[in-house]
Amino acid sequence: MARSDAVAVTVNGRVRPVGDVPPHTTVLHWLREIGLTGAKEGCAEGECGACSVMVARPDDGDGTRWTAINSCLVPVGSLDGQEVVTAEGLGTVDDLHPVQHEMAVRGGSQCGYCTPGFVCSMAAEYYRPDRSPAPEPDRERGPNGFDLHALSGNLCRCTGYRPIRDAAYALGPADASDPLTRRTTEPAPLAVATWQTYGDRAYVRPTDLQTALGLLADHPDAVPVAGCTDWGVEVSLRGARADLVVALDRLPELRELHVSDDAVDIGAALTLSEVGRGLAGRVPLLDELFPQFASLLIRNGATIGGNLGTGSPIGDLPPALLALDAEVVLISAAGERTVALAHYFTGYRESVRRPDELIRSVRIPLPLSEITAFHKIAKRRFDDISSVAVGLALDVQDGVVRRARIGLGGVAATPIRARATESALEGRPWTAETVRAAAEVMRTEGTPIDDQRASAAYRQAMLRTALLRLYADHAADEGRTA
Amino acid sequence: MSSLSERPTNPVVGQEIPHESAALHVTGTALYTDDLVGRTAGVLHAYPVTGGHAHALVTRLDPAPALHVDGVVRVLTAEDVPGINDAGVKGDEPLFPSEVMYVGHPVAWVLAETLEAARVGAAAVEVTYEPLPSIVTVTEAIEAESFQGGQPTVRRGDVEAGIARAAHVFTGTFEMAGQEHFYLETHCSIAQVDESGQVFVQCSTQHPTETQEIVAHVLDLPSNAVTVQCLRMGGGFGGKEMQPHGYAAIAALGATLTGRPVRLRLNRTHDITMTGKRHGFHAQWRVGFSSDGRVEALDATLTSDGGWSLDLSEPVLARALCHVENAYWIPDVRVNGRIARTHKTSQTAFRGFGGPQGMLVIEDILGRCAPLLGIDPVELRWRNFYTAGQDTPYGMPVRHPERLATAWNQVLTSGDVLVRRAEIARFNATHEHAKRALAVTPVKFGISFNLTAFNQAGALVLVYKDGSVLVNHGGTEMGQGLHTKMLQVAATALGLPLNRVRLAPTRTDKVPNTSATAASSGADLNGGAVKDACEQIRARLAVVASGELGVPAADVRFEDGVVTGLGGGETTWDELVRLAYVQRVQLSATGFYRTEGLHWDSSTMQGSPFKYFAYGVAASEVEVDGFTGAYRTRRVDIVHDVGDSLSPLVDLGQIEGGFVQGAGWLTLEDLRWDTSDGPTRGRLSTQAASTYKLPSLSEMPEVLNVSLLEHAHEDGAVYGSKAVGEPPLMLAFSVREALREAAAAFGPPGTSVDLASPATPEAVFWAVEQARSEHDERAHVVEGSPGREPEQPSPSAEPMRPSSERVQPHVRSGV
């Protein structure tokens, strides 16, 4: 493995040795220390995007996808051998990049502090290989195919966003002769085995699963990380430090996606962005969820395994996966075991996973229910944490609910199944009367509390209206098809 | 047309140009204070020692354990302060407190070689606290009679007579939340000491002069030994008007004690937990309407949540009282104000400076009462507009009220309001689970600092021998485009193309005794000063040109770098400058500006404190989901009065950005303090970007049409323009009122709903529930004359002190 003195990152086309820095040093702080102060710290928790930079990540084929991430969350060691582009690397004052030009002339910057981050997020979307003019632009997609969700993780306090949206929608196709466009046609840098140490602390990236499992078996206190979108917040906001951080996000064994006749098996280290692209619409419930899950900057790093591994009582995936009857495949040096997600969580941020085990994949049984929905209750539509999250999956045959699976987040110490509600639905006719009665049962599920996101009363009300809404939406669908 | 407002032919002002730093912004090369750390050798990092009590005495503070942490250089405590241990000007903000007044109040600061060492060191400092009872909410403060500062009243006529005259009298209360500034760049200072002991502080501050004064009084230095520079700010919004001083002083103190540069940057958590915010307000009111819906009388008591110290709470309150009537003529008025002292951050200036809170009171009243009066809210507002010849309750003539009517009608027309409201009625009739509404609200906002003394500014314009021009002025750039406008003003006044003029960072050793860049007045004041300096130089150059071209000086014209004698020859600017130098003509000038015609008596709350009013009108359409209370803003139409715009792209940005920020305050941004009796009482639970949500792209109105009001020349301001920083924020009232009306649409016609502020989806959901239930106990507006009289100010309350607005010389303590 590469030792500390060999850890290096290619920044704006130039190889930069990382030097002797503590392993918790974020990409953002390191960039600023080497004089690239374009990326800013606005929140240090991946919420504002002022730190956004582009990294070269493997595309779904053999090419490279410029991928915007929050540089405030990831340790610099995680980019060993990787390529980064910052706002400074896109263009210069005398030779602005098309994204920079549109932002500048349209009034896309006022104080300018968030601007380098916006520019990087926007540039990643500018280079997106499958971006093409949209015949029918909608509220979140411009005529040039620009997906506004690309900017869902960037906050601006000055402009009100209209000029930023106009800049995004004014972008033409990426020029084929642009070096960054050309770069997308070549493979992305491979993951590099990394062993970065500083004093007693180390950041380690094994390149195979057995080494990773061995490390975890030998070091029960090691912190396994993937996208660092959760651990990074602990580090920057709460001063968490670990003696050993083990990076899993590039382990090939954890990055596979299989679809068979009876299940979809999603590798734990695939990012949510990769999962969304890989599933290609096969699981509509997840397609409904992903755009509501944090921001694209986060989804570009966050993994399905990490989301389950942190065991948040809210984390938006578990309610959806509970509704899908998903199973968790755990692996250790001793072997594999499969646990139903409904039995996985044991308490607040606790689960049946042993310290020496990793989540290898998440398995969703097929066929899927016909009626599914994901309801996220939050203050803000882009990039907010749910006060209540509801995953719903119903099988209705001949007007009768044959099977109901409902997952809830934000109403108990762990994500839970709404089992009483499921019982109130199953075997009953799919009618407004059944739904109204079941909605009253659902209102009493869980043990919601008052907190800064919502009152307990509102959470209960949202549990109650979720089924009413599903029924109204479904009835509307039926009306349309009829 | 005044000489101040008149424009020459082909002026650079009025041209639509991008922000002067736009190319630097987009390439990441624009520097902010913290970007200087890596460009400065040997920097020490400061980190605060904080505790978890809302109110407590510090009984013991032992820095020794921190000094054992590797990398820690020094711990700063009260004993280190050579001058005044106070971060403000009123003596109520100890820099190193012996009594903690809010959760997170720093009691000491650790300096270390790295930020990591400073953080670990701060955790090692041992502090013992003796907890004391705390007051966290305004209502607790009202009950405990915990007030601070003056308790002023704006009064006109006889409010009892007005109430008695009214056909309908309603009584209610209203509480609105404050707002976190959430400038993307947190507070930051870097201080250095030079070889002669002069202190140089680079600071993200809207008020470099006051930062300089506070640093000087903490260090016991005269002002001439302290220089403050602000390169630019990553947003200010009022949050860096008063709040940066103490942090700058800590950095400066550390630099003087260690001889090394000290950087103090608040991380986001510290910034949110330690620095002041927009004041939340509580209002008790009764209002009388005539049978045709005219407001006859308003009797109200506004209590602002000042937090732990006075800060700018008095002038904020004064502006709230001076805006409580917004755009409406009210014959009989009594509006009392008082400031609660609570154990929270010291609330401070925030875009609008109390104006929005005052105006929200009357807009909330109209929104709640319109259904009870059976009058369409659009009609109710229109009927009550000021007309020519009327005065505000504080005795100031309302000039140009017809502009408000013009803007209103323009919005109704361009926004197709009548047609769309009919469409909305049809939509609502056919949709059980979603309702739409369209509301129109006006803005009238007074421009100038309430306190007359602040309405002055200076500039220093330097012309070099090669003809290039460097402009210094006292205003700071926080994204509002002030520097862009000042460049345009200078280029216009000198008759030069824009590229011959540069602007230097704001420094107290270039322009002294500046006012804060605040109160939307930056361009008015500094523009006047820059123009004055340029005109002095131009006048001298005209004399030189007169000799050269053989025409009277009055017949020399400067335009686009060419100097022409009327009826004579011409020369270039560069040649003329060279000639002037050879003739020993001074090529630099200081400029000065004072706003004429202002007077204000803060003891009687009467006068004409404002140079003019800025007007605006917005129409917003929303759709509310009945299942969740979630909503989206479908379309917004705005007509706003910026006079003759100095810089249209900049002004458009201010209008849109202000509107969205206002909508954030009113709908999304939710400051929640722990009001329980538990161990975390007084803690701000929304202290991070993950819990305190700003508007993002997803909250953008789907359609946003903004027009500048035409024929809007303002005679009393530079080149006929008007201030634009604050007024557009209040255009967002239209969103809130639309949400109220959409929620009401879930109930029967004539439903009056109370809407909490902020109107989060949860708040809107409860408003929907209130509308749906016929006998809801949450409805708080009560009809009946004479209504319930609001609480009156304590006779023993101190008067408003102009000193609260910082003109009193600093009192030296400890001697």
TrEMBL record, chain A:
Keywords: FAD, Flavoprotein, Iron, Metal-binding, Oxidoreductase. Transmembrane segments: none annotated. The keyword Magnesium does not apply. Coiled coil: none annotated. The keyword Transit peptide does not apply. Residues 5-90 form the 2Fe-2S ferredoxin-type domain. Residues 196-369 form the FAD-binding PCMH-type domain. InterPro entries: 2Fe-2S-bd, 2Fe-2S-bd_dom_sf, 2Fe-2S_ferredoxin-like_sf, 2Fe-2S_ferredoxin-type, 2Fe2S_fd_BS, Beta-grasp_dom_sf, CO_DH_flav_C, CO_DH_flav_C_dom_sf. PANTHER family: XANTHINE DEHYDROGENASE SUBUNIT C-RELATED (PTHR42659). This is FAD binding domain-containing protein. It comes from Luteipulveratus flavus.
From TrEMBL, chain B:
Its EC number is 1.17.1.4. Residues 772-791 have a biased composition (Basic and acidic residues). It comes from Luteipulveratus flavus. Keywords: Oxidoreductase. The keyword Phosphoprotein does not apply. Residues 27-133 form the Aldehyde oxidase/xanthine dehydrogenase a/b hammerhead domain. This is Xanthine dehydrogenase molybdopterin binding subunit. InterPro entries: Ald_Oxase/Xan_DH_a/b, Ald_Oxase/Xan_DH_a/b_sf, Ald_Oxase/xanthine_DH-like, AldOxase/xan_DH_MoCoBD1, AldOxase/xan_DH_MoCoBD2, AldOxase/xan_DH_Mopterin-bd_sf, Xanthine_DH_Mopterin-bd_su. Residues 772-815 are annotated as: Disordered. The keyword Amino-acid biosynthesis does not apply. One of its GO terms (molecular function) is xanthine dehydrogenase activity. Transmembrane segments: none annotated.
